[in-house]
Design a protein that fits this description.
Blueprint: E1 8-10, E2 17-19, H1 23-47, H2 57-65, E3 73-75, H3 78-85, E4 95-100, E5 108-113, H4 117-138, H5 143-150, E6 153-156, E7 160-165, H6 169-179
Antiparallel strand pairs: 1-2, 3-4, 4-5, 5-7, 6-7
Helix pairs in contact: 2-6, 4-5
Length: 180
């Protein structure tokens, strides 16, 4: 059997030689690369947020609401959801919106259950449009509100979507992620 040092092949395009590994070293190397690829794929799918949630909407809503002060907001009816987000609530299984008590407030919580990729896209677009509108409204004269909107969080997943603009949106987002 030839040793790895005697198994050399001319490297095209250069003057050097390329050493090929022995067949004994090749098998473990292929297995290690394969195991690494499987691990990476597992982690990507595990943490990509593309999985469906098994949590009930009421549980997600309860977890999220426990982390936000809704006393600075009011609950929206279907007409207000249509007006602020352009979504038809009758097309959704569950939608919850808490919006500011006054025009000078930027606190807002929007939570939706999603049934299809089309709904996911529609909700994501509606949230982004609402956020852009709010940022534009406070541009130049509402520094506290603008700062709150800048740190707001949008998290649209396979089963649920969250938009939170609050003093501590991170706590609300963590509650959402933990129950998801």
């Amino acid at each position: 059997m030839a040793s790895s040092s005697s198994r050399k092949r001319k490297n095209r395009g250069g003057d050097g030689y390329l050493a090929l590994p022995s067949s004994q070293a090749l098998v473990p190397m292929v297995l290690m690369v394969g195991a690494f690829v499987c691990l990476v794929l597992f982690l990507v799918f595990q943490f990509s947020g593309s999985r469906k949630s098994t949590a009930a909407f009421a549980d997600v809503q309860s977890a999220v609401l426990s982390q936000v002060d809704v006393n600075t907001m009011q609950s929206a009816d279907n007409q207000m959801i249509r007006r602020l987000y352009g979504l038809d609530p009758s097309e959704f299984e569950n939608l919850v919106l808490y919006y500011p008590l006054t025009n000078m407030g930027a606190e807002e919580l929007f939570l939706a259950s999603i049934r299809s990729p089309e709904q996911k896209e529609a909700v994501a677009a509606a949230i982004e449009k609402r956020l852009a509108t709010q940022k534009k409204s406070f541009e130049g004269y509402g520094p506290a509100q603008s700062a709150m909107l800048e740190k707001s969080i949008v998290d649209v997943r396979e089963s649920y979507a969250l938009f939170i603009s609050a003093d501590d949106p991170g706590a609300v987002a963590r509650a959402f992620q933990n129950i998801y």
